[in-house]
Structures are given as C-alpha cells and as structure tokens.
Design goal:
The chain is mostly beta strands. It is built from no helices and seven strands. The chain has strands spanning about 20-25, 30-35, 40-45, 55-60, 75-80, 80-90, 95-105. Strands 1-2-3-4 form a four-stranded antiparallel sheet, with no helix packed on it. It has a three-stranded antiparallel sheet with strand order 5-6-7, with no helix packed on it. It is globular. The protein starts with 18 loop residues before the first strand and ends with a strand.
Length: about 110
C-alpha cells in the first residue's frame, strides 16, 4: 500500500501571522526556515535531521523590508554557515514611491 502523506504542521503560531517563508536544505538533511513576522521582523528557525524545530530566532526588524509577491528574506546553507539576505526597500502605495535605502543585507 502507498504510505499516507505527512500531516502538515503549524509552526510558531505564538508569533501571529507569518509571511514569506523560505526553506533551505543542507546536505545532511538539516532544514532552515526564514520568514517575516509582525513589524517586518525577520526570523530564522533550524531543524536538524530527526529533531524538532528550534525556537525561532529574531534576526532584526526592517520597517522598509521588501516583502510581497516573490520577495522577502532569502536563505541558503554555505557548508555549515547559514546565510540570510533581504532588501531594505519597498513601494509605498499611498505615496506612490519607493522608500528605504535599497541596501541588500546578508
């Protein structure tokens, strides 16, 4: 018989509404998840093979975080190092202009 698909797991509900999840997989199977929380807070959590997710770690808050369709923080493993990047710029619909520095952070 075909095995049942895994049951989805709700992660980090205590942080409220989350957005822009990005997942990275290391060669040994470790997972890293970057996501955006309230006040454009950027968080990261890690799960080692066979273990539970770590508590999310706050990397910082960026009021002008580029977060939207196909945007938000990006995450990747570089050997044992975990790299998270984001852009400090967004389009303000009310002012009809780009705000923020436009700087890329990693």
């Amino acid at each position: 018989p075909t095995p049942a698909p895994p049951t989805p797991q709700l992660l980090f509900a205590e942080l409220g509404a989350l957005a822009q999840p990005q997942l990275a997989v290391r060669a040994d199977g470790a997972l890293a998840l970057a996501f955006v929380g309230a006040k454009s807070a950027i968080h990261v959590a890690v799960r080692s093979p066979g273990a539970e997710w770590s508590a999310p770690r706050l990397l910082g808050e960026e009021p002008n975080l580029a977060a939207g369709m196909r945007r938000g923080p990006r995450i990747a493993w570089a050997g044992e190092a975990l790299v998270v990047s984001y852009i400090a710029s967004r389009f303000d619909r009310e002012k009809r202009k780009v705000v923020g520095t436009g700087n890329l952070y990693a």
